[in-house]
Amino acid sequence: MSLSQSPLDGLNLESLNDQDKAEIRQFLNKQQQRSQIQAQTHQLTQVCWTKCVPGAVKSGKLDKTEETCLANCVNRFMDLNLLTVKHLQNMRSN
Amino acid sequence: MDSKAVKDAVFQQVVAESNLANARVLIEKIQENCFEKCITKPGGSISSGEQSCATACMEKYMNAWNHVNSAYITRARQEGAGTQ
């Protein structure tokens, strides 16, 4: 998506008062956080889909086993994430 | 245009583009994963079995996405904002 064709082009940003500028900053931070969570969710869903839904798809709904597996998968992935960071820190201090 | 109108336009545009970007990635992921699952041996045309597999797979992938999203958010909250 090219920014040069954004519908915001016609907007006069000069007319923003300080309070609205601050609100925009706050809003953008929030949106960025939201985008990061979504990006991480895409990655995790990919990883955990492969692990937790290995066979043929019988139904559009998740069964209990799959739901549990997905939640565990997310949590173990995060555990490993922390463990990796810790391990790297140990390597650096040794 | 006054300040509020400009601000609202910025908000609206950012949300719209962000939602579009998220939907694009989701569609791409669904396409890849459900193709892998449902079109195991590409034939001369799509079979009804492949079609119903694909429909179920799409729904299932989106359910999985939502489930993973809430599990991730729960975990991230537990970790606190400091650890990423």
UniProtKB/TrEMBL annotation, chain A:
Coiled coil: none
Pfam families linked: zf-Tim10_DDP
Keyword terms, alphabetized: Chaperone, Disulfide bond, Membrane, Mitochondrion, Mitochondrion inner membrane, Protein transport, Translocation, Transport
BP-aspect Gene Ontology terms: protein transport
Membrane topology, from the record: Peripheral membrane protein
Residue ranges of domain Tim10-like in the record: 26-90
Predominant cellular place of this UniProt entry's protein: mitochondrion
InterPro entries xrefs: Tim10-like, Tim10-like_dom_sf
Subcellular location: Mitochondrion inner membrane
GO cellular component: mitochondrial inner membrane
Similarity comment: Belongs to the small Tim family.
Domain notes: The twin CX3C motif contains 4 conserved Cys residues that form 2 disulfide bonds in the mitochondrial intermembrane space.
Subunit structure of this chain's protein: Heterohexamer.
Protein task: Mitochondrial intermembrane chaperone that participates in the import and insertion of some multi-pass transmembrane proteins into the mitochondrial inner membrane. Also required for the transfer of beta-barrel precursors from the TOM complex to the sorting and assembly machinery (SAM complex) of the outer membrane. Acts as a chaperone-like protein that protects the hydrophobic precursors from aggregation and guide them through the mitochondrial intermembrane space.
The protein's name in its UniProt record: Mitochondrial import inner membrane translocase subunit
Source organism (scientific name): Clonostachys byssicola
Automatic annotation (TrEMBL), chain B:
Membrane topology of the entry: Peripheral membrane protein
One family name in Pfam for this protein: zf-Tim10_DDP
Keywords: Chaperone, Disulfide bond, Membrane, Metal-binding, Mitochondrion, Mitochondrion inner membrane, Protein transport, Translocation, Transport, Zinc
Record-linked InterPro entries: Tim10-like, Tim10-like_dom_sf
Subcellular location per the Swiss-Prot or TrEMBL entry: Mitochondrion inner membrane
One cellular-component annotation, GO: mitochondrial intermembrane space chaperone complex
Segments forming domain Tim10-like: 12-73
Gene Ontology BP terms: protein insertion into mitochondrial inner membrane; protein transport
Source taxon at top rank: Eukaryota
Principal subcellular localization: mitochondrion
Subunit structure: Heterohexamer; composed of 3 copies of TIM8 and 3 copies of TIM13, named soluble 70 kDa complex. Associates with the TIM22 complex, whose core is composed of TIM22 and TIM54. Interacts with the transmembrane regions of multi-pass transmembrane proteins in transit.
Family affiliation: Belongs to the small Tim family.
Entry function: Mitochondrial intermembrane chaperone that participates in the import and insertion of some multi-pass transmembrane proteins into the mitochondrial inner membrane. Also required for the transfer of beta-barrel precursors from the TOM complex to the sorting and assembly machinery (SAM complex) of the outer membrane. Acts as a chaperone-like protein that protects the hydrophobic precursors from aggregation and guide them through the mitochondrial intermembrane space.
Protein known as: Mitochondrial import inner membrane translocase subunit
Organism for this UniProt entry: Clonostachys byssicola
